[in-house]
Each structure stands twice: as C-alpha cells, then as structure tokens.
Amino acid sequence: MPRLRSRATILFEVDGEIVVDEKLAKLLMLIDEKKSILAASRILKLAYSRAWESIVKAERKLGVKLVEARRGGRGGGGAMLTSYGRKLLNRYLKEYQIKLRKKLTIRKVKIGYPELIYAGSNDLLLEHIFGLMREKGFEAIDAAWIGSSGGLTALMLREADLAGIHLYDPETGRYNIPYLSRYWLEDTVLVIRGYDREIGFVSREPLNDPLKMLIDKGARLINRNLGSGTRVHLDQLLKREAEKRGVSFQELIKNIKGFRDEVKTHLEVVKAIIGGKADIGLTIRSAAEKYGLHFKHVTWEKFDFVILKDRFEKRSIKGFIEILKSDTVKELVEKLVGYRVPENSGNPIYGG
Predict the structure, then answer these.
(1) Is residue 340 included in any domain, yes or no?
(2) What is the dihedral of CA 8, 10, 11, 12, to 10 degrees?
(3) Per-residue pLDDT tens for 137-185?
(4) Is 4 among the domain residues?
(5) Residue 189 domain boundaries
(6) Buried b vs exposed e over 242-274: b needs ≥16 C-beta within 10 Å?
(7) pTM score over 0.85
(8) How far is it, in rounded angstroms, from Cα 170 to Cα 327?
(9) φ/ψ bin of 88: left (φ > 0), alpha (ψ from -120 to 50), beta (otherwise)
(10) How far apart are CA 70 and CA 85, in angstroms?
C-alpha cells in the first residue's frame, strides 16, 4: 500500500467558490516583493498565462482588482497589489499562521527566462510561426495567450518582448496603433505589420442573423476572455445593436445566454460548439472550417505585432521577423483559409 500523506491548508471562498488558495497567495506575495507577474510565475514554475488567469478569475469573483499595472514614478513601476489585494493577502497570511501554526513560505529558486516571451492574442498562423522558429533552434519560446489588451499590459510592465494584437478603434476606424497611448507605449515600441484574418460567427447550422439568435431566440454564446481583440470586437457589435434597440449594453447582454462563459483560444470556441456546450461564437474562419462548422463573415481584421524598441535587436526578435517575411509563411497562408499576407508584412508601420 502506498504511503499516504495528509496536508491541511487554508481556502477563502465566496458563495461556495474558492477565490484564494495557497498558490494564489504565494503569487500575490511574490508580486508584492518582485513587482513582476513574470518573475513571480517563474519562481512558482507557473505559466505566465496561468498566473494572469488565476488573478483575473479571483478578481471577477470578488468584484475588485487585486493587482494593478503602474508606470514608473518615484516608487518605480511594475505590477503592484491594490490596497484591497494587500488587505486580502494579509488576512490570508494571518489566518494561515493562526490556524496552521506556521507561516506560508516560498522556496527560493534561481529563475531563468526564455529567449522569446510572447504575450497577446491567440492565433493559429502564429502558432505555426513559433513552430518554425523552434525548428531553427529557438526552442525557449514562452507564449501567453492573454488577449490583445493583456499583451499591451505585459509590454507596459516590460514582461514581454512581443505582443500580437488586433484591436479595432471605432472612433478612428484604425486598428491597433490608437491603443498604444492607452498603455503609455507610444514612445517605447515599434509596430510591425503582420497579416489579415477573417473573423465571423461560427455555428453548427447556418445562421442568417447570429445576433438576433443570441438576443431574441435563446441561442447560447461561447465568449472569449476579457481583453482579447475578439471579445472587444463582439462587445462593439453588441453595443451597436443596443443603440439600435434603444437599450443599454448591460441590459442587452442580460438576455444572452453564456455571455459570461469565456475561453482563451479560438480552438476552445470551436470545441465548445462541436460539443454542444454553446451554439454560437465569434472566431477566425480557419478554426471554423478546420472542424466543419458553418461560418458567417463579419470582417477582415489586422493582426499586428508590437515590440519594445530596446528588444528589437534580440536574436529571437530578428528570427521572428525573418520567418514572418519568409516565403514559407506565404505558402502556409495559401493552405490556411481566412488569412491574407500584405506586401508590407514584417515591416515597421509605427515607431520605425
């Protein structure tokens, strides 16, 4: 019989759901000490995307921010605990020590960093590009699918080298560049032209009006994570629909089943629909057609890459741009439906 071990721990719950456990408490402790989500995740041997996910998950359940990004200043920049985050952590540590009669400790380890840290939107063609990089010897690539907004935040925190974004600004009618100033990045980054992607609504059966099916007919949505470009685009579509109907956005989404059901990747959207967990999702055409689902076109979007200027000379960044501009990628695009490569792909369109 194997040796059995028991272990006591402390959990904080809200309405029966766990919001803080030892792993999150350690993550918050390290963010408070290192001022970096990346450093904290590396010490805990936790994927960068998982660290973000655990923080966001707790924040949504609690309805408050636990961690915030700060830019420079007298006290320095980086990731910081909010006042609520610090109070919550202190309460957890106090109860941990009182009830378990010991302090919560973290084993210090020497941390290393990969050659390339990507943070941003999920994309099938980009996954192929990273695969080509690994074939050329760039094995240490850390890709965190945390959405376009998350990618820009990671650059602001200087925790990523490269971010892939596809954020449409309805006020200017432009993609991506108008968002840089919102993250204080306008003087510190280059934007490299990427490629175009076709996005639309995916379903098991053909649909003439997906929004009407979601709002009026009770079809269930599978949504993307907050901060992703696809989520931003869907929210913009729903806000326009709310204006047409003379109701608020919040009132409109109350009628949409599954609006709070979120996944991080296009593949997860497709699998939710194939498995019957949802009826409709907004995703890229290549993912829909790969699995034989119906696709209703919405738009072609611009998927571009944002790079910190002082990281531009890194070997891994140079390797990424070389592959992005290669004939191999153009040949890949010919096989993947729903992609277009412009002539200026791989060239700077801002900050160069």
Answers:
(1) yes
(2) 160
(3) 998 999 999 889 999 999 999 999 999 999 999 899 999 999 999 999 9
(4) no
(5) 116-350
(6) beeeeeeeeebbeebebbeebbbbbbbbbbbbe
(7) yes
(8) 33
(9) alpha
(10) 15
